[in-house]
């Protein structure tokens, strides 16, 4: 067996299953899960129609590069969304969802033969970054997020000795779980570091189309173009249809950026057997070509966040994120419990599932930046999310000592 497999940590949802083992669920409340970031709005019917119409495409092997109309759809969307012009033949590549691509990319670019290679990622983070680094033979380094700056990553906390060994940097904007969006100055800093130390940047942007303000989140390629880096050197962005179009089961996305990195990634994927099904390609072309369903989806998220956030803010520290569909809430100190205890007790009393924040982070620099926080995925319909929020409010109020008791 590959000995590096033993370095992998249990996935957060396996830890959650173990945490909830033995909990007697209250029969008075139907279960509501805010634990998993799985979109649950209905998938647009026209995407399924495109899938059904393409069944005849099963009679041939698909190319790893994808069909020309698919790559053209990627480039057209990048033009529409970011005012960027990328060559569909050399600067975009289909992937079977951003998750598998984020993992595979580390296997492409990390050179384990070099002295103690490092992969830098945010903390808290999407655990695929860590697993990809470990299985590529690198050491993860966790850059902390700063609550005082709306959970922006503190890249200055990464010492030069780490940057010198860094081969790959994962960024996530909008961030999972915090929802923070990287501004242009932050990108400028990372590009300067990449130039100085020669590492590659993988920008995870799968939440880019769910946002709450008038200005959409800045993308990595967009930032590069604005800063005069139109060749996108040492930069790839990763995106998918899962959140944007509510089709996580389609497993469809694409990567875009540096043509040299695309060429190397294509070579890896050709051997890895990662070609996208012709049916999925047809459905993807339809999805990337339509913005109306994306606008409607965004409006639904805006409504539920506008209703749920004030309810929870009355009893715990939580605020509207920059983007994404998560609330990153602090467990009230008055409850006298940690984030895992909070999640278990909430389930036992009110049948609502949330994910402990410490499961999404690692102990680093003397602490776990996810400790005492919980991630709530507002992916269900609005009424269900509001009901969950109401139960959480009741739970906190029922467990909070009265002023008289506190003074005594």
Automatic annotation (TrEMBL):
Its cofactor is pyridoxal 5'-phosphate. It holds the Pfam family Aminotran_1_2. One of its GO terms (molecular function) is succinyldiaminopimelate transaminase activity. Transmembrane segments: none annotated. It is an enzyme of class 2 (transferase). Keywords: Aminotransferase, Transferase. Its EC number is 2.6.1.17. The keyword Transferase applies. It comes from the Bacteria. Residues 32-389 form the Aminotransferase class I/classII large domain. InterPro entries: Aminotransferase_I/II_large (IPR004839), DapC_beta/gammaproteobac (IPR019878), LL-DAP_aminotransferase (IPR050881), PyrdxlP-dep_Trfase (IPR015424), PyrdxlP-dep_Trfase_major (IPR015421), PyrdxlP-dep_Trfase_small (IPR015422). PANTHER family: AMINO ACID AMINOTRANSFERASE (PTHR42832), L-GLUTAMINE--4-(METHYLSULFANYL)-2-OXOBUTANOATE AMINOTRANSFERASE (PTHR42832:SF3). This is Succinyldiaminopimelate transaminase.
């Amino acid at each position: 067996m590959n000995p590096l497999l033993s370095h992998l940590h249990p996935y957060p949802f396996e830890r959650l299953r173990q945490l909830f083992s033995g909990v007697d669920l209250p029969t008075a409340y139907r279960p509501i899960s805010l634990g998993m970031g799985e979109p649950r709005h209905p998938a647009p019917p026209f995407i399924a129609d495109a899938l059904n119409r393409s069944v005849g495409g099963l009679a041939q092997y698909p190319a790893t590069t994808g069909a020309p109309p698919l790559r053209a759809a990627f480039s057209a969307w990048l033009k529409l969304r970011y005012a960027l012009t990328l060559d569909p033949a050399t600067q975009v590549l289909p992937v079977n969802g951003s998750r598998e691509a984020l993992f595979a990319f580390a296997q492409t670019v990390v050179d384990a033969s070099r002295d103690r290679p490092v992969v830098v990622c945010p903390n808290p983070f999407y655990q695929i970054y860590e697993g990809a680094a470990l299985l590529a033979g690198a050491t993860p380094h966790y850059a902390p997020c700063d609550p005082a700056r709306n959970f922006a990553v503190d890249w200055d906390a990464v010492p030069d000795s780490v940057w010198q060994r860094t081969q790959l940097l994962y960024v996530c904007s909008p961030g999972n779980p915090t929802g923070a969006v990287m501004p242009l100055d932050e990108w400028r800093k990372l590009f300067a570091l990449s130039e100085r130390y020669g590492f590659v940047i993988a920008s995870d942007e799968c939440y880019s189309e769910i946002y709450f303000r008038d200005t959409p989140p800045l993308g990595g390629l967009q930032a590069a173009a604005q800063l005069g880096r139109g060749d996108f050197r040492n930069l790839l962005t990763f995106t998918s249809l899962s959140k944007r179009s509510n089709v996580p089961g389609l497993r469809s996305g694409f990567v875009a950026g540096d043509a040299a990195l695309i060429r190397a990634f294509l070579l890896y994927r050709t051997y890895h057997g990662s070609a996208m099904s012709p049916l999925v390609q047809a459905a993807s072309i339809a999805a990337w070509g339509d913005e109306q369903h994306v606008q409607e989806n965004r409006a639904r998220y805006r409504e539920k966040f506008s209703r749920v956030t004030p309810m929870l803010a009355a009893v715990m520290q939580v605020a509207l994120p920059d983007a994404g569909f998560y609330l990153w809430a602090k467990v009230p100190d008055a409850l006298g419990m940690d984030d895992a205890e909070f999640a278990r007790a909430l389930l036992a009393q009110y049948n609502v599932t949330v994910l402990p924040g410490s499961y999404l982070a690692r102990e680093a620099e003397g602490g776990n930046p996810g400790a005492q926080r919980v991630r709530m995925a507002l992916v269900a319909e609005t009424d269900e999310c509001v009901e969950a929020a109401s139960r959480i409010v009741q739970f906190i109020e029922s467990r909070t000592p009265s002023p008289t008791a506190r003074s005594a």
